[in-house]
């Protein structure tokens, strides 16, 4: 297959690709090839190249792509959402929508693993944790989880790990159906016995790890959970409470009621319905469980000057370090949505949130009183926002009648209708809704909150929730935070494995269009024609690009795509009676989530060694297959490898595993080196997941949203994720079907327009060009930097794939300068660091992507060469490591401008090491963080404002160190 050049300079592919014709020629000459085709012929093994381009539609312009998106949006029927079931009507304040959701300073940022350049989003996420902690009454909260259903599954796993002896978990039958569907199957996957029961009759039996309690229930009813919590504690089990955050403005907190864990969904704090996601779920735990908390945890440490500074706490990275011993496989969370929810709380404050909660509750009580007066039966006497009304045999008729009037309500069963009130509801809506139940005029209702569960005080007491009173203040606060950070709108983010590429605005604009954003995930198919047509087309395109038979977009993160693929493999073997196949082979070089996902799928992990050239060690693979062959369920491989090389043995590996009866899982994290040129489903894969937030341009959003579709061969199609809302959780899913992975059928559907637009505007030829330019960019960097830093692994003709690994280990032994020192020093040049210490300790893995132009690539090369010269000064003995600029980097504006300066190097060398920085200069808000201090002194909620006073900080730091 020969590449077709991009000839139209106004086309989207030309706008997406960084290098123009002249720049591309310069790069090719430096790499040593006459054309992109010649480079690809040398870099990619011939036996993996696709024979023909994938069958996609003709590429569209940005204008035409948006016209098609508007057509899809126009096919949806947007009713006022009173459906509930875990998804509520809410209002996104425009100042937050415009300055967070639609601001590239927020949505293009990477996960805040490098804290010095992430202080803004870390503060916003700490606001989220503080909000959740205060609402739930539990001391430690994370930031964040993927959705409510999988958060409950994570809570069940946490309870099981904490209480190792028990093998039974009790799920409240009052949980939402999708929560039951996902949590029950995830629990069964790790060999827990699941019982779904009405908790009003109490707990029965022993051997319990814990219980999950709905508060309120799916029909809106509120039951006091204290008796159940006390009962499970008396059996040495744990209690998880699933709760609605807005209700906790009025209801007693789970922590005060004795819960060990609280989980829920923060969607109704200003995040649109988004047809099911992305939405930030949350988990809060008691202090004794904090070290087992899954997901990300923002903590507080100090920097080199003793000032408070935020960072991700240790357990955030443990999941990758621990591999098969990991407690969770979460990698992407929902950071952008957690920021949105936290800012909603900051903007409204405790008084505003309480007013919203009281408004919602008063409308619900008015509706209940009105339909009661008309003779209808209100099923539950105690509720917050959801009223269940008994209408024997007429539920669907009432639902249809209200749909005609513009309202979406829930048919709970054939005899019951659920009506859930949200933020935008009015008294006029109460009157219209009540008409369907025979009422003529609305009446006021009394509080329906249980007297013993009314919250005594108002939560959110931290000053941050009372300091913003106007839009001007909010706008400036958000700008202040984003200015602290480095995101893709300022600089290249050269992260190997994480593919930080351009996010096309033409697709991003569509996610907040009301015809997409305001559709409830459980709206009937007749109202979601546009959404489903878009998704069907996108799934078809992804299948064509990967060479698989079918794709499901339900997994809402790459980690969940991994889990879905492994569960499909596991269930496939079980359907064939091969229940002994429970081993997953994982190369030593694999992504950390691979082994963690295998563990969550209840597969035993056996590691396959890596050869000296970075490829899978075939001799060791043969030995493992000889030893474990009859028990091998699958192998998980990343292609091109995590070492950034196109291994020429990938077909051989696939054939060997297939011959042993196993399946081949090809991790799609590196599809940016394959898209349009090669298809995993054609060169040996049975299943792959894709990272739409990498290859297919959904923004990383500071650590999420992510979408991780799973693609499978024909024989695995029956085992794709099933619809969680219709799953029967009471019994295990038969071995002939798949299990639900996320809360909704299409997962984080609300951002799929971005990937749809990217593929639609690039077309098959544009996608192939993007891949070729990604490979060109990586090889250009590798060639330009190879004299300064050895390239650890290369393939044919010394080429790399779309990323390369810079080996600093020998330089470290000579100078003491570590890869971490280089990462910190790059901040002074205005760069996010490459991937640090993965997959090999003491190295940096660099991925430039196709979207970076020659000037930006050369700016990075200049920075790395300058740093190499600074290392050489230490090697030559001209400066000691402890006195070097590298040891003390990075430098804040204050540190290089205050009157005290006791370093041998100049302020200019510290802050302006190359001339280009005199025009555009980024200063980090803090100096290098003390990581060990942060783990010894874990603080997981916002510190008081006085902690940031420099005098107070110094005293506190001295006291705590002593």
From TrEMBL:
<feature type="modified residue" description="N6-(pyridoxal phosphate)lysine">
    <location>
        <position position="694"/>
    </location>
</feature>
<dbReference type="InterPro" id="IPR049316">
    <property type="entry name" value="GDC-P_C"/>
</dbReference>
<keyword id="KW-0560">Oxidoreductase</keyword>
<feature type="domain" description="Glycine cleavage system P-protein N-terminal">
    <location>
        <begin position="15"/>
        <end position="437"/>
    </location>
</feature>
<comment type="function">
    <text>The glycine cleavage system catalyzes the degradation of glycine. The P protein binds the alpha-amino group of glycine through its pyridoxal phosphate cofactor; CO(2) is released and the remaining methylamine moiety is then transferred to the lipoamide cofactor of the H protein.</text>
</comment>
<dbReference type="InterPro" id="IPR003437">
    <property type="entry name" value="GcvP"/>
</dbReference>
<dbReference type="InterPro" id="IPR015424">
    <property type="entry name" value="PyrdxlP-dep_Trfase"/>
</dbReference>
<dbReference type="GO" id="GO:0005829">
    <property type="term" value="C:cytosol"/>
</dbReference>
<dbReference type="GO" id="GO:0005960">
    <property type="term" value="C:glycine cleavage complex"/>
</dbReference>
<dbReference type="GO" id="GO:0004375">
    <property type="term" value="F:glycine dehydrogenase (decarboxylating) activity"/>
</dbReference>
<dbReference type="InterPro" id="IPR049315">
    <property type="entry name" value="GDC-P_N"/>
</dbReference>
<dbReference type="GO" id="GO:0030170">
    <property type="term" value="F:pyridoxal phosphate binding"/>
</dbReference>
<dbReference type="GO" id="GO:0019464">
    <property type="term" value="P:glycine decarboxylation via glycine cleavage system"/>
</dbReference>
<dbReference type="Pfam" id="PF21478">
    <property type="entry name" value="GcvP2_C"/>
</dbReference>
<feature type="domain" description="Glycine cleavage system P-protein N-terminal">
    <location>
        <begin position="469"/>
        <end position="721"/>
    </location>
</feature>
<dbReference type="InterPro" id="IPR015422">
    <property type="entry name" value="PyrdxlP-dep_Trfase_small"/>
</dbReference>
<keyword id="KW-0663">Pyridoxal phosphate</keyword>
<dbReference type="GO" id="GO:0016594">
    <property type="term" value="F:glycine binding"/>
</dbReference>
<dbReference type="InterPro" id="IPR015421">
    <property type="entry name" value="PyrdxlP-dep_Trfase_major"/>
</dbReference>
<comment type="similarity">
    <text>Belongs to the GcvP family.</text>
</comment>
<protein>
    <recommendedName>
        <fullName>Glycine dehydrogenase (decarboxylating)</fullName>
        <ecNumber>1.4.4.2</ecNumber>
    </recommendedName>
</protein>
<dbReference type="Pfam" id="PF02347">
    <property type="entry name" value="GDC-P"/>
</dbReference>
<dbReference type="InterPro" id="IPR020581">
    <property type="entry name" value="GDC_P"/>
</dbReference>
<feature type="domain" description="Glycine dehydrogenase C-terminal">
    <location>
        <begin position="770"/>
        <end position="891"/>
    </location>
</feature>
<comment type="subunit">
    <text>The glycine cleavage system is composed of four proteins: P, T, L and H.</text>
</comment>
């Amino acid at each position: 297959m020969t590449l077709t050049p991009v000839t139209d300079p106004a086309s989207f592919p030309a706008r997406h690709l960084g290098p123009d014709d002249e720049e591309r020629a310069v790069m090719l000459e430096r790499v040593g090839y006459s054309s992109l085709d010649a480079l690809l012929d040398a870099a990619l093994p011939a036996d993996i190249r696709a024979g023909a381009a994938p069958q996609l539609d003709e590429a569209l312009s940005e204008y035409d792509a948006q016209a098609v998106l508007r057509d899809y949006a126009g096919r949806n029927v947007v009713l006022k959402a009173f459906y509930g079931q875990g998804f509520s009507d809410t209002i996104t304040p425009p100042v937050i929508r415009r300055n967070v959701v639609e601001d590239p300073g927020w949505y293009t940022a990477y996960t805040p693993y490098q804290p010095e350049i992430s202080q803004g989003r870390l503060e916003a996420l700490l606001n989220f944790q503080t909000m959740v902690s205060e609402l739930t009454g539990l001391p430690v909260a994370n930031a964040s989880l993927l959705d409510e259903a999988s958060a409950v599954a994570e809570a069940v796993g946490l309870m099981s790990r904490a209480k190792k002896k028990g093998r039974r978990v009790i799920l409240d039958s009052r949980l939402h159906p999708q929560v039951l569907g996902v949590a029950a199957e995830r629990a069964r996957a790790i060999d827990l016995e699941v019982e779904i029961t009405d908790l009003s009759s109490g707990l029965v039996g022993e051997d319990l790890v814990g219980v999950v309690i709905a508060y309120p229930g799916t029909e809106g009813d509120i039951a006091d959970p204290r008796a159940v919590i006390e009962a499970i504690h008396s059996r040495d089990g744990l209690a998880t409470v699933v709760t609605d955050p807005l209700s906790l403005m009025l209801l007693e907190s789970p922590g005060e009621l004795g819960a060990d864990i609280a989980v829920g969904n923060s969607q109704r704090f200003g995040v649109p319905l988004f047809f099911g996601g992305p939405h930030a779920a949350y988990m809060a735990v008691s202090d004794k469980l904090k070290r087992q908390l899954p997901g990300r945890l923002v903590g507080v440490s100090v920097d080199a000057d003793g000032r408070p500074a935020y960072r991700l706490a240790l357990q955030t990275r443990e999941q990758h370090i621990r591999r098969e011993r990991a407690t969770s496989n979460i990698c992407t969370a929902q950071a952008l949505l957690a920021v949105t929810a936290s800012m909603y709380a900051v903007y409204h404050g405790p008084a505003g949130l309480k007013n919203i909660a009281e408004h919602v509750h008063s409308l619900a009580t008015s509706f209940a009183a009105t339909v009661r007066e008309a003779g209808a039966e209100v099923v539950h006497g105690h509720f917050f926002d959801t009223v269940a009304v008994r209408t024997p045999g007429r539920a669907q008729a009432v639902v249809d009648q209200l749909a005609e009037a513009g309202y979406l309500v829930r048919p709970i069963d054939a005899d019951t209708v659920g009506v859930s009130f949200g933020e935008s509801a009015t008294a006029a809506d109460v009157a219209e809704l009540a008409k369907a139940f025979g009422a003529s005029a609305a009446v006021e209702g009394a509080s329906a909150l249980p007297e013993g569960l009314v919250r005594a005080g108002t939560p959110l007491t931290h000053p941050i929730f009372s300091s913003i009173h106007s839009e001007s203040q909010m706008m400036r606060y958000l700008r202040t935070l984003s200015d602290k950070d480095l995101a893709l709108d300022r600089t290249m983010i050269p992260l190997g494995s994480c593919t930080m590429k351009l996010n096309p605005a033409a697709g991003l604009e569509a996610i907040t269009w009301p015809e997409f954003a305001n559709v409830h995930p459980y709206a009937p198919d007749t109202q979601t024609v546009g959404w489903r047509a878009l998704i069907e087309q996108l799934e078809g395109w992804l299948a064509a690009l990967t060479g698989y038979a079918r794709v499901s977009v339900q997994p809402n993160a790459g980690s969940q795509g991994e889990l879905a693929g492994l569960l499909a493999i596991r269930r496939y073997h079980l359907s064939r009676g091969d229940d002994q196949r429970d081993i997953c082979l994982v190369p030593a070089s694999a992504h950390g989530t691979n082994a963690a996902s295998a563990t969550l799928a209840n597969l035993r992990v056996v590691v396959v060694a890596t050869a000296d050239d970075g490829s899978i060690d075939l001799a060791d693979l043969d030995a493992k297959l000889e030893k474990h062959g009859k028990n091998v369920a699958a192998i998980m491989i990343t292609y091109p490898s995590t070492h950034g090389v196109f291994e020429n043995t990938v077909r051989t590996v696939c054939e060997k595993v297939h011959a042993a009866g196993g399946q081949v899982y090809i991790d799609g994290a590196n599809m940016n080196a394959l898209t349009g040129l090669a298809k995993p489903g054609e060169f040996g894969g049975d299943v792959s997941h894709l990272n739409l937030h990498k290859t297919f341009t959904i923004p990383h959003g500071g650590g999420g949203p992510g979408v991780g579709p799973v693609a499978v061969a024909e024989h695995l199609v029956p085992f794709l994720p099933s619809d969680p809302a219709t799953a029967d959780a009471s019994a295990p899913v038969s071995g002939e079907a798949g299990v639900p992975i996320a809360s909704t059928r299409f997962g984080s559907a609300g951002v799929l327009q971005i990937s749809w637009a990217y593929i639609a505007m690039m077309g098959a030829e544009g996608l192939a060009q993007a891949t070729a330019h990604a490979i060109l960019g990586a090889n250009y960097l590798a060639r330009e930097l190879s004299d300064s830093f050895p390239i650890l692994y290369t393939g044919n003709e010394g080429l790399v794939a779309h990323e390369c690994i810079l080996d600093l280990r020998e330089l470290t032994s000579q100078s003491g300068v570590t890869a971490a020192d280089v990462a910190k020093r790059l901040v002074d040049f205005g760069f996010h660091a490459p991937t640090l210490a993965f997959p090999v300790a003491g190295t940096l893995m660099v991925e430039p992507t196709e979207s970076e132009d020659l000037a930006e690539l050369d700016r990075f090369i200049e920075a790395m060469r300058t740093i190499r010269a600074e290392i050489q000064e230490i090697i030559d003995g001209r400066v000691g490591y402890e006195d070097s600029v590298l040891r003390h980097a990075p430098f804040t504006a204050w540190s290089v401008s205050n009157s005290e300066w006791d370093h041998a190097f100049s302020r200019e060398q510290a802050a302006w090491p190359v001339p280009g920085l005199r025009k555009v200069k980024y200063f980090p808000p803090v100096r290098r963080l003390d990581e060990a201090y942060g783990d010894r002194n874990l603080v997981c909620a916002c510190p008081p404002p006085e902690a940031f006073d420099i005098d107070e900080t110094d005293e506190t730091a001295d006291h705590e160190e002593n």
